[in-house]
Amino acid sequence: MSGSASAIDRFFHYLLARQTGGVSPAGLWLSYLDWAMHLSLAPGTQAKLAWRAMSDAIAFQQYLASVLESADGKAQRVDRAPHDKRFAHAQWERWPFNAIQQSFLLCEGWWDEATTNIRGVSAHHAEPVRFAARQLLDMVSPSNFLPTNPEVLERTFHEGGVNLIRGFWNFIEDSQRTVAGLPPVGVDAFKVGKTIAITPGKVIARTRLMELIQYSPATKTVHPDPVLIVPAWIMKYYILDLSPNNSLVKYLVDQGFTVFMISWKNPDENYHDCGMDDYRRLGVMEALKAAGLQDKVKVMSFDGSMVGIEAIKNGTVIGDMAQYPVRQGTLAADIGMGLWHGTIDAKSLPKYIDTGTGLITKDNADEAAKESF
């Protein structure tokens, strides 16, 4: 009976994951409740947030008054983050769009403070809450709506509305491709090994769940410690090797590092019996073993995410692979997201990576997280 119950649960979770994109509703609710309960029991933080809201309201009123009085439409304002391109167009400085974007930035800043550094909230729950708040705010950004986006309004005026008709037909085509199970338009232009993931490498090990790719250093002098990159299993490995201009792999080999990277296999229904331990055992552990045997090196630098970090946190890597001790684990997911979004490129990578060790420090990882969204 227990086996049947487990099978029913797994099938239900499979159907649920199809509807939620693999996001656990229980995990989200636990994160939200952790944040909400601790915030409700923090009167000092509540007072600080109330004061912030009142101060922002007063500052916004002063901004509106100064804009209306200023002949050139300039006034003291809340500056957007350097990587935020939503309001970079000059039209956003015109009335009333300057007031719209300023009110949104003030609201965004308030929510960022409300979801950050709440005492008692576990880091495991704090990050999803902050991420979800950021995503929800991005959804309601004035740049996403026709009446509040001056760039789209200007284009609509110049094209006589043809751009809206064109966008509608693009929406119809995308919907049809989604229903038919076809890839999005333009995906065919990206070819692994030709237009993306062009850093030379070779597969040195395979398991049921992954392939291990080795990239040789491109310098005469070589660092003694290789770098093992463990991407999130939901991402392709080439998220960190998109092009020479935004490739973490190319940057590391150009600094003299031997780089190993796991490429996870896309699972289908035949992998329904695989769990976290399989990814640890057949992924991280086998990669460590293959990389260690390949270069006879026992010290690994870990720049990974998801599976790799969890394996390090719970001690399974160090416990199972004492002969291949891990020097340090760092979360490079935000570096990858920054490279993907274009907010981090090859020129800015030295800000985050220690060229002597190939590691990403905690402070630099936090900075990357801020620039990745």
What is the total tally of β strands? Answer: 6
Helix segment count?
Answer: 13
Q: Tell me about the largest β-sheet.
A: 6 strands, mixed
The helix/strand order is HHHHHHHEEEHEHEHHEHH
Order of strands in the sheet with most strands: 1-2-4-3-5-6
> Into how many domains do the coordinates divide?
3
* CATH structural architecture of the largest domain: 3-Layer(aba) Sandwich
**Class by SSE composition:** alpha/beta
Shape: globular
Q: What is the CATH level 1 assignment of the largest domain?
A: Alpha Beta
The stretches of 5 or more residues where confidence is low (pLDDT under 50) are 294-306, 312-337, 361-373
Query: Which fold name corresponds to the CATH topology of the largest domain?
Result: Rossmann fold
Helix share of residues?
A: 40-55%
Termini gap: 47 Å
Query: What is the overall pLDDT average?
Result: 78
The fraction of residues assigned to DSSP E strands is 5-15%
Radius of gyration: 24 Å
In short:
The protein is of the alpha/beta class.
Descriptive notes:
- By secondary structure, the protein is an alpha/beta fold.
- It has helices at about 1-20, 25-40, 45-70, 95-115, 125-140, 150-160, 160-180, 250-255, 275-295, 305-315, 315-320, 335-340, 360-370; strands spanning about 200-205, 210-215, 225-230, 260-265, 300-305, 325-330.
- The protein has three domains: about 25-150, no CATH class; about 155-190; about 190-370, Rossmann fold (3-Layer(aba) Sandwich).
- It contains 13 helices and six strands.
- Strands 1-2-4-3-5-6 form a six-stranded mixed β-sheet, with helices on both faces.
- Helix 8 (about 250-255) links the parallel strand 3 and strand 4.
- The protein is globular, with a radius of gyration of 24 Å.
